[in-house]
Fold this protein.
Amino acid sequence: MPGLRVVGWGTAVPEKVVTNRDLEATIDTSDEWIFERTGIRERHVGGTTASLGTEAGRKALDQAGLTGADIDLLLLATTTADKIVPGTSPTIQHNLGIAGGAVDLNAACSGFVYGLVIANGLFASGAKRILLVGAETLSTITDWDDRGTAILFGDGAGALVLERTDDEGDLLSWDLGSDGSLTDLLYCNHGEKMQMDGKEVFRRAVRVVVDSATTVLEKAKINVDDLSLIVPHQANIRIIQAACQRLNIPEEKAAIVIDRFGNTSSASIPLALVDAIENDRVHGGDTLLLTGFGAGMTWASAVLRWPH
Ligand code: UT7
């Protein structure tokens, strides 16, 4: 069965930077506390989900040497669509001149990996090229007076251009999960701001990441020693450290951008992946583990081989 290959990538973040020191002026917190407890130094804030998604998508197309006319589907992973209706993907589709369809998908912070797995299935049933975008403006649903959440979130976008292969492709294995009995841990009602039980999300996140990552490594028959890079959802550096420790993955093998971008939900995995690519940490034939978790709760992992 045909599968997918990554042929382009791009990211976008708004210009405005909000540092931990900036937050000290408005809430009872400190740069030291935030950095020690989360690994975050600053986050970018601003723009719209459509504008950030468009910019990341355009860079990914340019990088692949393609235009919107070459794409038959836009998949947008987001929890912060600009409007309730319509979805934000048609705006990005229009901005980029994409020839095919466009759809939003919301699996919270697991959305980008969900999108990757869905894209893989669509290649098996005839799609030729898919633009997968993760874009968020979490600042619009953050309560900036709540120190339990305001310190964590940021805005940004990342995109991959995916192409159908004649062979089985580079998505070697995947695992998708959901436990809707846990919706109360992290949610945002219409017209309100995000609510989170941080401690409980933390505890469960480590558990689901370890289980899901173990599942995909086993499915792909990959030993942790043969893993080149882990690209985890960037929610808290301590979650990443705890998961790496339990999985016996040296922390040096983790792609980390949380210090600069905070938690950008669907955008965090592509932001971390593209940062690793741009810093020459990803090479042809490498085996990457992408793993995310988030509200729902949902979780998603995939083993991806990097093309030569
Ligand atoms: O995409 C998925 C989304 N979310 C997550 O993954 C979030 C997962 N959870 C977390 O990252 C962490 O639970 C937080 C960063 C949200 C909180 O860190 P924590 O280590 O779990 O702190 P805590 O809630 O146990 O609070 C410890 C102390 C408390 O003071 P006392 O009771 O010990 O005196 C808090 O009141 O730190 C206090 N505190 C703060 N102090 C300064 C809580 N938030 C802050 C703050 N600044 N922003």
In short: The longest helix spans residues 198-219. The pocket of oxa(dethia)-CoA is lined by residues 29, 33, 37-38, 109, 147-148, 151, 186, 196, 198-199, 201-202, 205, 235-236, 263, 294 (CB under 6 Å).
